[in-house]
């Protein structure tokens, strides 16, 4: 995809409110990092109070994935998760607008040699990530240390799309943004020996998935990781990030490449991926994106795990 360019159309009155909001956000993120953490937690409390549907989804996911916890423990975890989501709002702005030197001081990177070794060998890498609330800032911090291409879905608002892409791509001057459905472009990047960020942990429907266990529940799990690794002749390298509790920044871990992947079949690979998801999410459940309906697609004949969704009035 081409680099985003400013268009005079963005000055149209329909975008003035968005410009105002972005301007206020830019001003706020000039505050010291500890202040932003506090503001994020306050925003998370507000979101917990008003975002009823998202709160219900996240609570249900925690019930499904952590039945061994008491209701009180899950409710505490739910509130911590909303606080983490509120902080993520400011982390997004930090990754877009903070000077790179200021941002880099927050990064504690481990395992970078795995990417460097693959790059030296001309080996493509699927950087297998997860939808943690720290997703945006984690990708930005790693992008300052190693070029990462990324899967991309265009935002419906063209101004927001411009701001978002510009903020993301400033950390990777030679990176490529690839449309999520453009499989040919992704394989071309992998065969060229580049690393691409990819997260296989959401529900993308029955068509491109297999049902395998995730936290003991049959979950529609995409088989694309196996296909991309095989056709792109690429390594699969797990990547996790963590917002450190002491306020010193973020721990980014590039784990060793998965051995013998792809395996004997797609189902075995999906099981292996979900086992890794369980391990990574279980270590930091409060920082995971629980507001996604991860188990919305059910095997034939099984009822919804989330109940009926209310239809919006036209």
TrEMBL record:
GO terms for cellular component: plasma membrane. GO terms for biological process: Kdo2-lipid A biosynthetic process; lipid A biosynthetic process; lipopolysaccharide biosynthetic process. A motif (HXXXXD motif) lies at residues 131-136. It is found in: Cell inner membrane. It catalyses: an alpha-Kdo-(2->4)-alpha-Kdo-(2->6)-lipid IVA + a fatty acyl-[ACP] = an alpha-Kdo-(2->4)-alpha-Kdo-(2->6)-(acyl)-lipid IVA + holo-[ACP]. Its EC number is 2.3.1.241. Pathway: Bacterial outer membrane biogenesis; lipopolysaccharide biosynthesis; Glycolipid biosynthesis; KDO(2)-lipid A biosynthesis; KDO(2)-lipid A from CMP-3-deoxy-D-manno-octulosonate and lipid IV(A): step 3/4. It is a single-pass membrane protein. GO terms for molecular function: Kdo2-lipid IVA acyltransferase activity. It comes from the Bacteria. The chain crosses the membrane at residues 9-27. Pfam families: Lip_A_acyltrans. Catalyzes the transfer of an acyl chain from an acyl-[acyl-carrier-protein] (ACP) to a Kdo(2)-lipid IV(A) to form a Kdo(2)-(acyl)-lipid IV(A). Belongs to the LpxL/LpxM/LpxP family. This is Lipid A biosynthesis acyltransferase. It comes from Stutzerimonas degradans.
